[in-house]
């Protein structure tokens, strides 16, 4: 590669970093979702973030994927591995149908099932063999407003996916060759060992068109894939550029023929086959072109081998002859005029639109939107053991993020505890605790913390203090504040990044961000005058725009 090409690659690399985030931004996003996983633990299940956001990418239109691993059931390859003293329900993996990448899960004749008779409602009995039905389990606990999308329960706008799954702690036999196969130098032995240690998951969906589709479970390597992608160099995230091309160009013409998982699979194969030294900013254009050519090759030969179980061809029966020819024409067009296609994608066009002033500093993506998902982790369902949660948070390898999340947790507590109304020792003890909680909450967001404190004063009829806090809080609700949500624009992201670089995460969140005022069931801090609103919304939490809520509360505090 000549110097001109290298310089062009470096400029393009910087441009791409502005859009998908710098190396530091991507690492911060990953830390946030790892922290969410630390919090999302319960005696009955463990929450695992997966998909693009957990991998550190926050592209426009990407959803949030969360897997819920049930701890009371565990998959085994052989019943010989089941301990007699186990408290988990053993499920036996059956791959006799020879559908690569899928398995049936059978219930053994263990007496432990007698303690959980409800399990049999998800079973299909055939010739004395009890199979655990993926279809019946997938339909379990489908909430209002959610739809079944593949193995997932998804919101109707497909911005959030959750999937219930089981785990096999051992690395299964069909994927054993992955451990020992020849590779350039990535992944190294240390990373392979770490991946194998986490085992595999089973998600409730069968092979499309299979005779046993409703009984089969797909073997998922989500945990392994996340670990591998977290080890990528930043240049290897040209994978993100492939996803942009897919979403903004290929999907418009060909729908869902090519999904992002196929791109991830191709990327993993390429990384294994090439030296890590080739993946550097000076070579990013060549790296991207190689990814694109490999995709074309796979479509031409109707072959995309699963990264961990190569016997599973992901492109088997994927396209008709016409679809394959049409898709190839599009991919060849992109390959021959890739500059044109890349810079005409909606993602790159939107970036140019937001970058109105060419003389101003470049807009750059940041991790601000990822912080919006931390509220989900503090749902009361997860905060079952305060001591354990605090321990997990203090062990996060980022002191500022750890302090932010601990502060956020303390601020949630008064919302989730019923207030004692009798003016006795317990009343004053709880009142003092609540004051300490809000004081701790000031480290994550001053407007939310002061709003909650004003609500506490109002509930306890301390109206003068309530009015003082409300007036102070309203003075902080200025137009320069950034609202925290899952889709902050690039100008908001740039301001957040610059402030974070200058004064740190805690001070930035404290003084820059503004969030909706939230009330969770049992709504102990919600003013009694606003309780009729609960009849209008059958929800476990309510949200108000901060200025609206503060003005309403100020009005009530003055007239009483």
From TrEMBL:
Residues 237-330 form the Mab-21-like HhH/H2TH-like domain. Residues 161-230 form the Mab-21-like nucleotidyltransferase domain. The keyword Transmembrane applies. Pfam families: Mab-21, Mab-21_C. The chain crosses the membrane at residues 540-559. It comes from the Eukaryota. Keywords: Membrane, Transmembrane, Transmembrane helix. Belongs to the mab-21 family. PANTHER family: CELL FATE DETERMINING PROTEIN MAB21-RELATED, MAB-21-LIKE HHH_H2TH-LIKE DOMAIN-CONTAINING PROTEIN. This is Mab-21-like HhH/H2TH-like domain-containing protein. It comes from Mytilus galloprovincialis.
């Amino acid at each position: 590669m000549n110097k001109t090409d290298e310089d062009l690659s470096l400029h393009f690399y910087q441009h791409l970093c502005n859009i998908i985030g710098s190396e530091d931004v991507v690492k911060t996003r990953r830390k946030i979702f790892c922290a969410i996983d630390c919090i999302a633990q319960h005696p009955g299940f463990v929450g695992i973030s997966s998909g693009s956001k957990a991998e550190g990418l926050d592209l426009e239109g990407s959803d949030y994927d969360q897997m819920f691993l049930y701890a009371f059931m565990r998959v085994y390859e052989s019943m010989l591995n089941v301990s007699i003293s186990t408290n988990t329900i053993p499920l036996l993996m059956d791959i006799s149908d020879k559908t690569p990448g899928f398995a049936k899960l059978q219930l053994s004749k263990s007496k432990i099932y007698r303690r959980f008779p409800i399990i049999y409602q998800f079973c299909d009995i055939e010739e004395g063999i009890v199979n655990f039905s993926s279809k019946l389990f997938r339909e379990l606990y489908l909430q209002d407003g959610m739809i079944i999308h593949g193995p997932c329960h998804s919101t109707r706008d497909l911005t959030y996916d959750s999937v219930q799954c089981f785990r096999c702690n051992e690395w299964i036999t069909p994927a054993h060759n992955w451990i020992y196969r020849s590779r350039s130098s990535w992944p190294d032995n240390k990373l392979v060992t770490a991946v194998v240690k986490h085992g595999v998951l089973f998600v409730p969906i069968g092979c499309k068109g299979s005779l046993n589709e409703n009984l089969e479970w797909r073997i998922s390597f989500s945990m392994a894939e996340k670990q591998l992608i977290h080890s990528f160099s930043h240049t290897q995230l040209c994978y993100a550029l492939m996803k942009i091309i897919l979403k903004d160009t290929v999907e418009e013409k060909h729908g869902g023929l090519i999904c992002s998982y196929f791109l991830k699979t191709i990327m993993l194969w390429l990384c294994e086959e090439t030296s890590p030294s080739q993946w550097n900013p000076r070579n990013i254009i060549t790296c991207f072109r190689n990814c694109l050519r490999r995709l074309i090759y796979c479509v031409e030969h109707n072959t995309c081998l699963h990264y961990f179980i190569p016997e599973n061809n992901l492109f088997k029966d994927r396209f008709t002859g016409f679809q394959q020819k049409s898709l190839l024409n599009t991919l060849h067009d992109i390959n021959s005029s890739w500059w044109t296609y890349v810079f005409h994608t909606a993602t790159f066009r939107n970036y140019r639109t937001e970058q109105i002033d060419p003389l101003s500093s470049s807009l750059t993506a940041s991790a601000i939107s990822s912080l919006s998902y931390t509220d989900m982790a503090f749902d009361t369902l997860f905060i079952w053991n305060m001591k354990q949660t605090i321990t997990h948070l203090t062990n996060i390898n980022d002191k500022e993020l750890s302090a932010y999340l601990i502060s956020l947790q303390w601020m949630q507590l008064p919302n989730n505890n019923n207030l004692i109304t009798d003016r006795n020792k317990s009343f004053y003890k709880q009142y003092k605790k609540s004051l300490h909680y809000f004081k701790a909450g000031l480290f994550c967001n001053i407007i939310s913390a002061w709003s909650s404190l004003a609500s506490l004063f109002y509930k306890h009829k301390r109206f003068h203090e309530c009015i003082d806090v409300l007036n102070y809080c309203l003075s902080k609700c200025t137009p320069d504040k950034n609202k925290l949500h899952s889709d902050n624009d690039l100008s908001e992201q740039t301001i957040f990044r610059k402030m974070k670089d200058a004064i740190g995460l805690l001070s930035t969140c404290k003084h820059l961000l503004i969030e909706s005022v939230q009330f969770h069931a049992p709504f102990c801090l919600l003013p009694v005058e606003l309780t009729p609103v609960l009849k209008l919304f059958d929800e476990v939490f309510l949200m108000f725009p901060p200025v609206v809520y503060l003005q309403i509360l100020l009005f009530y505090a003055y007239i009483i």
